[in-house]
Amino acid sequence: MTGGGRGRGTVPDAGEVIAAVRATGGAKASTYSPLYRWMWAHHDALRDELGAPGLRGQWGRVAAALAARGLTDGGGRAPTARTARETWWKVRRAKAADAAAAARPAGVAAAPASPAPLTQPPPPLPPPVLAEPADDLPPLDGPYTFELARPRGWAPGGGRPGQPNGGGGDADET
């Protein structure tokens, strides 16, 4: 153990913490299924074999072979062709992400996905088109009033069309 700061006791070594976590038999060792962990450990060999023409698309046979060796999915069931295939793709994506992270220099975060920058400025907008006053329109004749629109059959007293105290309109209009 190493000395801790501020008088709070000692800080355990990372190896001791990991050993203690592994020693607790009741706790789940990993959030990944046994199938995922096995595929992770055997990624390189699987990548070479599962990409071969003889096994490509044969996930039913692969799942049966994995189940025969006691590997299970996250629910403790024997893997199906679908779970084997999807787990393999998850492992491949995770391995690719790890490889990309390892290729970056230390302290450099992954670049966020963003749209490509503009290489040229956008073209200028055309000048606005101003409307000319129309001299050939007839003049407005009389006062006009504008009101809010009302649904057909609406009346200020409420109710429904065709009923007492409220229809206000034709009962057959809809």
TrEMBL record:
<feature type="compositionally biased region" description="Gly residues">
    <location>
        <begin position="155"/>
        <end position="174"/>
    </location>
</feature>
<protein>
    <submittedName>
        <fullName>Uncharacterized protein</fullName>
    </submittedName>
</protein>
<feature type="region of interest" description="Disordered">
    <location>
        <begin position="106"/>
        <end position="174"/>
    </location>
</feature>
<feature type="compositionally biased region" description="Pro residues">
    <location>
        <begin position="114"/>
        <end position="130"/>
    </location>
</feature>
